[in-house]
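User: Hi! I'm working on a homework problem where we have to compare a predicted structure to a textbook description. Could you give me the structure for the chain below?
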Amino acid sequence: MSIVGFGGLGKTTLAKAVYDKIKVQFDNVAFVSVSRNPDMAKILKKVLYELDKSKYATINEAARDNEQLIDELRMFLQDKRYLIVIDDIWDEKAWELIKCAFTDNCLGSRVMTTTRIAGISNVCCSSSDDIVYQMKPLPDDDSRKLFYKRIFPQGIKCPDELEEVSRKILKKYGEVPLAIITIASILASDGPDKQIKPKYHWDNILGSIGRGLEEGDSAKDMQRILSYSYYDLPSHLKACLLYLSIFSEDFELRRDRLIWMWIAEGFVQGGKKETGLFELGESYFNELANRNLIQPIDVDATGKVETCRMHDMVLDLLCSLSSEQNFATILDGTQ
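Assistant: Happy to help. Predicted structure tokens:
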């Protein structure tokens, strides 16, 4: 099973909850994160250690290459019913190497992965028994519950004067649990008496998390969280993505029109002679969609995206980056 979705939706949280609930059903278990620039030997050693902390207590001191570690894992797992979670996979090559260690021993073993990239989730689920679970944004009611739970002391309801500003904050960032938690941490009641912060403070936060995400340590944390996906892109995709900063929030874009606009701006260049510029632009679009940086709205029967939009949080980051890099400038609310 592979869990896929935009950063901050709670993929790791969901995987960990499932892991904790069912791990008692298995002989050996491991939960290991990969990240963007993985040290594969270190990851394989981590899996071994998690599977049997007594046997592999000194595994990190062992001088073994990837092939030796994979062989060790295969031998250890061959007669075990195991549960392994590989969290936050960014690179297909990393998964291809890790999966070599997992043997199908017909004992009901399970491997779960999480990733932000749809293409990788499909690679992780290569057999007919595998499932790709697409994370969805939080419903409004759940978003509000999480937001208030993080802000108000137990048993305290949101004051009437804060309902409207709360609604505006949640309308902008309420789909993503990580964003909710980050913003709520700024507004959380503090001090020994758990005093609720005044409305002007909430209004200031609402203004500061609008366009730019520039003020406050927590806002910088959110910007850094979102920038992981951006800085992982090759330069030509960064230009295509930054171009989307010229559109307003929730603007629905026709896929083909966007690709032609990229071509007209000179962002789509080169490629093999047999590949036209439009086909190359399509590959750019698909890569951005796979990374959940573009949100599909309408998809045809063949799975081809027809219209798309930008998530507000991504757009805020792009506008900030666009201004810093002099890519586009905001003038009187327009660009």
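For your comparison, note the following. The radius of gyration is 23 Å. Residues 211-219 have pLDDT under 50 and may be disordered. Good luck with the assignment!
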